[in-house]
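Job type: complex structure
Entries:
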Amino acid sequence: MEACPRVGLFVTCLVDLVRPQVGFAAVTLLEQAGCEVEVPAQTCCGQPAWNSGADHHAADLARAAIATFEPFDYVVTPSGSCAAMIKLHYPEVLVNDAQWLPRAQALAAKTHELIAFLVNVRGMKSVAARCAATACYHDSCSSLREMRMREDPRALLGRVEGLQLSELKEPEVCCGFGGLFSVKYPEISERMADDKIADAQATGAELMLGGDLGCLLHLKGRMQRKGVKLRVLHVAEVLAGMSSEPALGE
Amino acid sequence: MTLDPRAFRQAGQAALHDENLRRALGRLKTHFALGRAQAVERYGDWDGLREQGRAIRDHALSNLDALLERFERAVIAQGGQVHWARDAAEARGIVLGILRQQGARAVIKGKSMVSEEIGLNPWLEGNGIEPVETDLGEYIVQLRQEPPSHIIAPAFHLNKEDVAKTFRAAHTELASDRSLWERSELVAEARRVLRARFESADAGITGANFLTAEEGAAVLVTNEGNGDLTRLLPKTHIVLTGLEKVVANLEAATVLLRLLTRSATGQDISSYVTLMRGPRSAGETDGPENFHVVLVDNGRTPLLGSEAQDVLRCIRCAACLNHCPIYAAVGGHAYGTTYTGPLGAALNPGMLGFALAHHHPNASTFCGRCAEVCPVKIPLPKIMRHWRAREYAEGLAPKSTIAGLGVWAFLAKRPALYRLAAGIAARLLKFIARRGRVHALPLMRNWFLVRDFPAPQGRTFQSLRANRK
C-alpha cells in the first residue's frame, strides 16, 4: 500500500450543489485512510448526457474530466453511479477516439467508489464514529450491479458504535430514480419510490443510508411529499461521524 | 381493446391506478422470480451455462443464412415445406394461402408470439377462418378480445375471479351453479370446451422455441400438452416462427432448453418438450399429413450487424420482464406492443421505429436487473441506450430533452461559469425552501409532480472547500 497517495476527489455535481457535507465527509475519511486529498475544479461526469444518448456532450465532459483527474494516483467519488460512469462508460463514450481512449482506460483503472476504495485499496477496517440509531441501507443499482459492491458499506457501518443495520426485504430492487427517468416518467418513479419507502419503514429503521445522493434526494423528496418521517443520510456522513448534523432536508 | 405504444405514459398512469392489475402483478415475484432463483441455485455453474448459451446463439446469428438453408433442406427431405416471409403481411398471406389450399375453416393454435406480432387472428377471422387458442392463458385473453400481456403467461394481468367471469360470459351453456372458484375448476372448464375444438379442427398452428438446422426439427416447449394436440390431431400443421430461432443442431438446442425453462418458470424441464419433424411418414399412426414451416423476418435481419444485434439472441424466456420494475409497475398492456419489458425496449425501436416505440427504451432506470438474469447475456440496458443515442442523433428525441441537456451541457463544459451558476442555485434553493424542502419550481414540473426537493445546505462544496483552504 502506498504511503500517502494523491487522491483526486470527484465530488459529484449533486453533492457539490445540494449536500457539501458529503464532500467533507469523504475528505475526512480519505485523510483518515492516509491519503492526500485534492479537489480540482470540476463539474459533472456527464452521465445525464450519456444516458440520454447525447453522446457528443458526454464525450466533451469525459475528456474534460480525464484531463482534470489523470495527474492523480487515484480518482475517488462518493457515488456508485458516477464511479461506474468513469470506470465502465468513459471507455465506451470514447471508443472511437483513438487519442482519448487509452487515457479513458487509464483513468478508469484508477477510479474507485469511495467506500470500496477505503475498504479494498486502503484496507480500512474500522471507523471512529458513533451513531445511536437503527438504519437500513439502500444499495444503488450502479453500486450493486455495475460496481459489484454490496458488503463494503455494511462492513464499515458494522463498526460504527451504536448503529444497528436492519436490512430491506428487497435491497436489489431499483428505487425509481434513474436520473432523468425520474422526470420523464414521474408516475412510475413515484410507485417505485413508494415501494422502497414502504420496505424501509417495515424494517423499523429510523434512518436510511445510501451511497448515491441521486437516489436519496428522490426518496427523501418523496418522503417529504408524503409526510414520512425517516432521516436520510449519505453513508459517508455516518462513517465520518457527522450523523448528528441535520440530515437531508432537515 | 386497442393498444398504442405512443400512449405508454397515459396507459401506464391508468395501469398504476388499477388495483386489480396491481394484485396480479404482485405475483411476478412469487410466481416467477423466486422459482427462477431456486432453479439457478440448484443448477450450479449457471454462469458457465449462460456463457455456453450466449456462444450458441451468437454462432447461429453469425451463420444465419447457412443454417436456415440447411434447415430448409432438412425439412423438405422429411416431406415438409418451408415458406419465407419478409414481413407481417407476407406471413399472414402465406398462412392464409396454406389454409385455403387445404380448405381449412376451423384452426386450433398453440401459443405463438409471432402470431401476435403479425396480427394473425384478426386477419384469419376477417377471411372467414375461425382460430381458437388452446393455451389456457391465450384462450382466456382471446375470449376477452385482449392481446396477451406477458410473453409466456398471456393472462398474467388477470386474477382467477376475472377468468371465472370471462368463462361465464363466453360459455353461455355453463350452468350458473357450476363452481369456478378453484384454479383446477377453471382448467377443467377450459378443457371441456377445448376438447371439442381439438377434435374438429382442420389445421393446427404452433410456434417454435428453437429450430435445429441439422435435423430440420422445430422444438416446442409447453406445460399443458396443448401444443402436441394442436400439432398431431389436425390434417395440417403450420409452424410459425421468427427466422432467428435457428441453431446448429439438437445438441445446441438442449443447452438453450436448460436455460429456457429455468429462466422462464423455474422448472428444470417443462412438462412437454416436442420435436416436430415433418408430416406423418409411412407406417406412422399419427401426425399431420401436411407440414409447413413459415419463417418470419419482419424487421429481424436489419438488426444483424447493428449495435442491437444481441437482442436477436433472445430465447423468449421472459426473465427480463419478470425482474423489471417498470413492467412490474404498469404491466404488459401499457407497452402497446407484442414484446414488452426490457425485451420490447431493446427490440421494438428496430422493428417499429421511434415514432411508435419512442417510450420503450426511454422508460428504463437502467437498473440492470434484466441483463443480470438474461440467460443468454443480452446487454439490454446497453441496447436501450443505443436506441436513445440513435434517436438523439437523428433529431427525434423530445425537444425538451434536447434543449434541457443543451443548457446543462453548456454550463457543465465551462467550469468557472458552472461554479457561479451552481453557487447561485444552491443559495436560491435554500432561500425559497420551507421546512427543509422546495415544494415547486418552474421548468421542473415533472419532478415536483410527485415529490419535493430536499433543501440544499446553501453553499457548494467547491466554494466552501476553497474558503477553508
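Summary: Residues 6-121 of chain A form one domain. The longest helix of chain A spans residues 186-202.
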